[in-house]
């Protein structure tokens, strides 16, 4: 599984793919929901890591 975090600076037009990407809003999702997400809460823990430690953007 790959999880990416970042901030969109403009709207993105997605093109249809076999395994489509989905953009989710951090503040509107319960990433610990076992009905919505696989992984027994692991996705929620990954999102918490991004919230706690940042998005990997180097400080200038």
Name the features.
60 residues, mainly alpha, 1 helix, 0% strand
Task: Outline the structure in words.
The protein has one helix spanning 42-53. With 60 residues, the protein is an all-alpha fold. It has a domain at 23-54.
Detail the topology: elements first, then pairings:
Blueprint: H1 42-53
Brief summary of the model shown:
With 60 residues, the chain is mostly helical. It is 20% helix and 0% strand.
Q: Give the low-confidence spans.
A: none
Report the count of strand segments. Answer: 0
- Radius of gyration, in angstroms, nearest whole number: 13 Å
Sheet with the most strands, sense and barrel status = none
**Shape estimate:** globular
Beta-strand percentage range = under 5%
- What is the helix tally? 1
Helix content: 10-25%
Which structural class best describes the helix and strand composition? mainly alpha
Overall pLDDT score: 82
Could you state the order of secondary-structure elements as H and E? H
Question: How far do the termini sit from each other?
Answer: 30 Å
């Amino acid at each position: 599984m790959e999880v990416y975090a970042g901030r969109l600076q403009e709207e993105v037009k997605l093109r249809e793919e076999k395994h489509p990407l989905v953009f989710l809003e951090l503040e509107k999702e319960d990433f610990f929901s076992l009905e919505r997400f696989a992984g027994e809460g692991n996705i929620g823990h990954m999102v918490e890591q991004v919230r706690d430690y940042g998005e990997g953007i180097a400080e200038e």
